User: Fold these one by one.
Assistant:
Number 1:
Amino acid sequence: MIAFPDEAAGCPLTGIVASYTPRLAAFAAEPGFVAAVDQHAAEIRERLFAQGPELMPRPLRRAELTDYALGFLDALAEVGWDQPVGYDYAVDRLTAICWLVHQNGLLDA
């Protein structure tokens, strides 16, 4: 099972950010990784905002991204996913969650 700090409190975002922020440094050298993470972030935003009629995206809410992350982590646990040395779909998606947290200041006090 994939466990991150604060997951017991219902918020895995702190652990995801701690684990995946170092991968953001790869953006400078790996444009393919940047593109993959950007596509994942766009899909996450679309999923979280699909229920509204707004033409302009509204601010991302911590609770929504937390719920999404919990569901994604549950799905990874169900299939017995282990983090690879390189990149795969799950690493790209978790890095996108981390990137969205940073971009939106979701862990700022």
Number 2:
Amino acid sequence: MTTKEKLLADMKQAMKDREAGKLRLEVIRMVRSDIRNAEINGKNKEELTENEVLAVIMKAVKMREDSLAEFIKGKREDLIDQTNKELEILKAYLPAAMSDEELTAIIKEAIASVGATGPKEMGKVMKAVMPRVQGRADGKRINTIVKNLLQ
């Protein structure tokens, strides 16, 4: 079952659950809308691949994490609770996060394959790593490890 199919099935279930699944239904509808907009605005006007769907979900997660940081600064408990619940719902659709050891091994392979020797070649390494870890690692985390390995 693809992520899009799972989202559709979960949306139907949340509709049946009425009040119990209200927030879940809103979040799923929002993600499905984001996916559909990405398909419409895409260059090839076709359905998104599984990796592209995961990228859309990762973007939604990142937006909420950024908002959460601001809500914490502003001490907005009501928004903090809701955003945490939304994050929990969204993260359920992402594959398990990679450990630092797995990520470091993939980055070392990428460094060797592109022949990177210093920080100036960080872009080449990132370009090689990102498709392999799509949806399983945050870009900031990858960036930090690449920087450390290229110094």
Number 3:
Amino acid sequence: MSLSYYQATVPVFVHTLDALSAILDKAAAFAEAKKVDPVVMCGLRLTADMLPLSRQVSTSCDFAKLCVARLSGVEAPKFNDDEKDFAELRSRIARTLEFIRSVPQADVEAGGGRVISLKIAGTQRELKPDDYLNFYALPNFFFHATTAYAILRANGVELSKKDYLGPLFD
């Protein structure tokens, strides 16, 4: 059985973004219980040269929406990267989910016939859809989602692997 472009993207993004939203709920509860300013928590980083939590979440959302948009040939919505607290980050996730769920499955499947053209580190690239999906979009999506989890976990939010894996493993 082969995995379609749609199966490899939309349900995967939905599942992980739903889990990330639930992780942010736990982080918000932690911030409230510990009396930590949510804006401060959203600015936390694993290390000084990495993006803060807020940008890890927004970048994960961007990889999801741009992957679906590029495969389907539709324009992705543009979001400001100005989220400062957990409610704004959950809203970013919700808007991303709304977009990727709105793209027809047939349009995503048509991505197999496209060349994906994008700039990576300032260089224009032309990628086959399989290479784009497997070696660029999905790894980056998971990198940023995982880093958001790790930032919160490293700063005391009680999270487990089950939180990251999401409701499929309840």
Number 4:
Amino acid sequence: MSNITRWNPVNEFEDLMNRYNRMFGVTRSGGEREGKDLFSRSDWAPAVDIKETPEAFTIEAELPGMSKEDVKVTVQDGVLSIQGERKSEEESDDKKHHRVERFYGSFLRRFTLPENVDENSVKANFKDGMLTLTLQKAEPKEPKAIEVDVQ
């Protein structure tokens, strides 16, 4: 008895585009490929969930296969940046890759922070490939009244 598999036209199209790009030595991002980089993909971004409570915002980023040393989090001018790199496993003489579907390479995610976030309160936790950032909310700034001398 034969197995029934579900046909996914998007996967077929992506496979066709990958084969076409390999034929002309072009990556998905438009750069030239070198022989070893045939299986590497650097056009990825980790999946992120953003949640809000009355006290804080929480950002959770999935970074499977990475360690905390591979990730850098910065806040500058109201923008939170998460960047890092997931390194691929090198092929050796005794091991050959037949299919590589996971994404490898550098990534950068940026998020504009709302005005009510205290940029100095960012706390990071990294466990089991999950980066959790907690950003405390700041007290709303009172509007400042300025007297204008009309002449």
